[in-house]
Amino acid sequence: MSAVISPRVRPDHAEIVEVGEGFLARTFPPSRYHHREHLIMATYLLVRYPERDWRAELPDLIRRYNVASGGVNDDTRGYHHTMTMAFLTLVEGVLAGVGHEDVVSACNAVLTSVAAERNVLLRFWSRELLFSRDARLGWVEPDIGAIDPHTIDTPAIGAS
After folding, report:
1. Which candidate, 129, 149, 133, places its Cα nearest to that of 141?
2. How far apart (Å, rounded) are the C-alpha atoms in residues 51 and 67?
3. Angstrom distances, CA of residue 104 to CA of 24, 43, 111
């Protein structure tokens, strides 16, 4: 099994807003921006601003955040389009099952779902394809199996 985010620290409302709005303002510290925070950010944006088209907006927002944080976006670093769209699909799938009423509950559902499994995308893409230049720069269809958040066979992490 792949490494997963520890359910040890469930975010509260203040942390969720700090991550989400900090990302939008490009002020969230990059040293604290890991897989967990990426999932919190995506969940926050989908719940807080449901009227926005995140598939269209998120790529440029991530690129700008990366640059503002001292990073770059090129063929090997920074923004990764296939991963971004795939994780957005997984988060949307979790939210479809739990609703969008409460951002704290939504984030906790995402953080205890299969989306929190760091290597979940390797169920759908080979490592070579997922980490290719083409996958970084644009959408690349999975070469192992279709990504469908409703048919992933792994139970929620930490579910009881």
Report:
1. 129
2. 26
3. 18, 9, 10
**Distance (Å, rounded) from C-alpha 156 to C-alpha 160?**
9
Q: What is the pLDDT of residues 11-38, one digit of tens each?
A: 999 999 999 999 999 999 999 999 999 9
The pTM score is 0.87
Q: Where are the domains of the chain?
A: 13-137
**117: helix, coil or strand?**
strand
- How large is the angle between the packed helices 81-98 and 54-68, nearest 10 degrees? 120
**What phi and psi, each to the nearest 5 degrees, are found at residue 117?**
-70, 115
Closest residue by Cα to residue 27 from 70, 77, 68, 87: 68
As given in the structure block, the two tokens for residue 40 are 């919190």
Left if phi > 0, otherwise alpha if psi is -120 to 50, otherwise beta: which for 12? Answer: beta
Give the largest Cα separation in the chain, rounded: 42
Q: What pLDDT digit, counting tens, does each position of 136-151 carry? A: 999 999 999 998 766 5
Q: Which residue has the tokens 């640059």?
A: 67
